C-alpha cells in the first residue's frame, strides 16, 4: 500500500526494478509503499519488499509462519526468501489477493457515517487476529522507532508497552512538548494507566490496520491483511482494537467522530472498557509520534499531538 504518513516521494531513478530483473524477474514493478518499505510485483504470484532500516527478517519470517498455522478467514504474508543487498534487507513473499478496503483518508474523504460493511470488515479482521496466540517470535520484534524488542526484560505486555512509551517520550519529547501542554504529566498518567491494566490474553498484534492494509474481495469481505511490521508484536487484543479505531480515519473531516464511533463499537462487541481503549490510544500516539518527522509539518506527528491533546486518560479526565 502507499503510505501517506511519511511524506514519501519517489526517487527520480528507481534502481530496484533493474536489480530484480537481473535476478530473473524482468517484469518487476513498484506496486506500493508502507511504513516498513517498498513493495515490487514480480509476477507468478510473488512480490519483493525492500525494507526500510534493518528489520529482524528471520523473526518476521517466523511470525508469518506462526500466524499462517491458524486457519484465518483471510490470507497473511509468507516469506519465501531473505537476502541482503548493500546493507538493505529484501524479502521475497507471496502476493496477497484482493484490493484495498479503501484508500487512505489523506487522499479519500470518508463519509460522516461509516458503512456497516466497513465496520463488519474491521470486526472480522480483529476477531481473526485475536484468535492467534502470541508467540516468542512476536515478542522478539521491535516496534519501529524503538531500539530494542518490545518485550525485552518484561513478562507483561502492559509493562513492556509502558517501558516503550517512556523511552519514546525521552527520545524526542522536547520536540513534542511545545505542541502538547502538560506532556510530562500526561506521560506519567499514561504510564500509570498502562501498568494498572489487568492481565489478559496475549495474541498476535498487527498494529497498523489502516484500510489500505486490509484487502477485500468484490463483495467487500476481507481476504488478506498485509504490511505487518510497524507495531507488530504479541499483546493485548484490546490494543489492536484501540489502535484500529484511531487510525481507520486519521485525516478526514469526520476523523474524530469515526474514532469515537469505532471505539464504542469495539468496546461493545469485544467487552473492552472505554478506559482501556483510550489508554492504549494514548500509548500508540506516544510510541509513534516521531516515526517520520519532529514538527507539525509532518502529518503523523501532527495527528499524534492532536490525539494526545484530546485523550482523556492522557489529560486526567474521565474516559
Q: How would you describe this protein?
A:
The mean pLDDT is 93. Strand 8 (214-216) and strand 9 form a beta hairpin. Helix 5 packs antiparallel against helix 6 (183-196), helix 5 (157-176) crosses helix 9 and helix 7 packs antiparallel against helix 8 (255-270). It is built from 10 helices and 10 strands. Helix content is 39%, strand content 15%. The protein has helices spanning 16-22, 57-68, 116-130, 136-139, 157-176, 183-196, 237-247, 255-270, 274-288, 299-310, and strands spanning 29-33, 37-43, 46-51, 79-85, 88-94, 99-100, 203-205, 214-216, 222-225, 233-235. InterPro entries: Aminoglycoside_PTrfase, Kinase-like_dom_sf.
Distance separating the two termini: 34 Å
Write the CATH fold name of the largest domain: Aminoglycoside 3'-phosphotransferase, Chain: A, domain 2
User: Main beta sheet: strand number and arrangement?
Assistant: 5 strands, antiparallel
Mean pLDDT: 93
What oligomeric state best describes the polypeptide chains here? single chain
Q: What is the overall silhouette?
A: globular
Strand content: 5-15%
What is the domain total for the residues?
2
User: What CATH architecture of the largest domain do you see?
Assistant: Alpha-Beta Complex
Rg for CA atoms = 19 Å
User: What are the segments in which pLDDT stays under 50 over at least 5 consecutive residues?
Assistant: none
Strand order of the largest sheet: 1-2-3-5-4
CATH class wording of the largest domain? Alpha Beta
Q: What is the β-strand count?
A: 10
**SSE order, one letter for each helix or strand:** HEEEHEEEHHHHEEEEHHHH
Instruction: Classify the secondary structure makeup into a structural class.
Output: alpha+beta
Helix content: 25-40%
CATH superfamily of the largest domain: Aminoglycoside phosphotransferase (APH), C-terminal lobe
The DSSP helix count reads 10
InterPro entries: Aminoglycoside_PTrfase (IPR002575), Kinase-like_dom_sf (IPR011009)
Protein name: Aminoglycoside phosphotransferase family protein
Amino acid at each position: 500500500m502507499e503510505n501517506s504518513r511519511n511524506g514519501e516521494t519517489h526517487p527520480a531513478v528507481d534502481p530496484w526494478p533493474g536489480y530484480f530483473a537481473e535476478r530473473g524477474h524482468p517484469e518487476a514493478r513498484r506496486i506500493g509503499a508502507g511504513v516498513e518499505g517498498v513493495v515490487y510485483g514480480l509476477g507468478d504470484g510473488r512480490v519483493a519488499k525492500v525494507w526500510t532500516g534493518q528489520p529482524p527478517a528471520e523473526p518476521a519470517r517466523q511470525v508469518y509462519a506462526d500466524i499462517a498455522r491458524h486457519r484465518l478467514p483471510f490470507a497473511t504474508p509468507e516469506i519465501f526468501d531473505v537476502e541482503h543487498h548493500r546493507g538493505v534487507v529484501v524479502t521475497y513473499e507471496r502476493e496477497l489477493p484482493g484490493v484495498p478496503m479503501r484508500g487512505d483518508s489523506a487522499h479519500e474523504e470518508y463519509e460522516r457515517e461509516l458503512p456497516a460493511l466497513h465496520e463488519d470488515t474491521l470486526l472480522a479482521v480483529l476477531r481473526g487476529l485475536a484468535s492467534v496466540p502470541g508467540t516468542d517470535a512476536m515478542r522478539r520484534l521491535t516496534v519501529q522507532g524503538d531500539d530494542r524488542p518490545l518485550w525485552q526484560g518484561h513478562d507483561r505486555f502492559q509493562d513492556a508497552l509502558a517501558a516503550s512509551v517512556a523511552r519514546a517520550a525521552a527520545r524526542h519529547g522536547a520536540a513534542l512538548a511545545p505542541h502538547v501542554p502538560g506532556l510530562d504529566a500526561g506521560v506519567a498518567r499514561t504510564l500509570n494507566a498502562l501498568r494498572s491494566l489487568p492481565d489478559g490474553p496475549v495474541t498476535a498484534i498487527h498494529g497498523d490496520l489502516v484500510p489500505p492494509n486490509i484487502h477485500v474481495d468484490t463483495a467487500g469481505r476481507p481476504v488478506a491483511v498485509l504490511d505487518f511490521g510497524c507495531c507488530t508484536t504479541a499483546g493485548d487484543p484490546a490494543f489492536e482494537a484501540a489502535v484500529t479505531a484511531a487510525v481507520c480515519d486519521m485525516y478526514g473531516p469526520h476523523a474524530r467522530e469515526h474514532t469515537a464511533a469505532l471505539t464504542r463499537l469495539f468496546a461493545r462487541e469485544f467487552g473492552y472498557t472505554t478506559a482501556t481503549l483510550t489508554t492504549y490510544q494514548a500509548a500508540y500516539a506516544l510510541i509513534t509520534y516521531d516515526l517520520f518527522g519532529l514538527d507539525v509539518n509532518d502529518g503523523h506527528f501532527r495527528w499524534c499531538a492532536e490525539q494526545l491533546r484530546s485523550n482523556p486518560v492522557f489529560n486526567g479526565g474521565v474516559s
